[in-house]
Design a protein that fits this description.
With about 190 residues, the chain is an alpha+beta fold. It contains 5 helices and 6 strands. The protein has a 4-stranded antiparallel beta sheet with strand order 2-3-1-4, covered by helices on one side. A two-stranded antiparallel sheet has the order 5-6. β2 and β3 form a beta hairpin. α4 runs antiparallel to α5.
Amino acid sequence: MNLWQSDLYFSVGLPLLVFFARVIDVTLGTLRIIFISRGKKYAAPLLGFVEVFIWISVVTQIARGVNDLPTYLAYAAGFAAGNFVGMHIEDRLAFGTQVLRIIVPEGADGLITNLSSAGYGVTRVDAQGVTGPVKLIYTVVKRKDIPAVLFLVHQTHPHAFLSIEDVRSTQDGIFPGHTDVRDGTFWGRKAK
């Protein structure tokens, strides 16, 4: 009897194989969905191909007659872990562009100056809130720059209301080349 037909393989090896294959498969699937939503039309199909290849390989192993709870649990646990790993990887990659809407009731000039000095494009709009006049400040930034922008916002207006949304695509604009708000250095460039 070879290793692939032994009790050890079916009780330990196969559940581990299924778990790790499922983690990779679902991680790729999570990234693929995120890539689709961000318009990455070349990366998404490639990830989809690898994802389905792994999935069909795992299902084939399970369909060979394995009918035990540890393998099914490994399949489900791999699915859950793959979602977590995929979101974590995407968060670490931090690609894409986001728009920040910042609403401040007064003293918007300091925030606008700080954002502009850091190289961020800023659009401001006079508006009326429930408690009186407010300024709406819009800025579109690379996702990896969100912590730096939030630092500037909270430094100037700790209680500013803000919302952040993904932007599918941008055309032209002002984006900093390098930003390090903690040491006060900014090098800006116009986006192409």
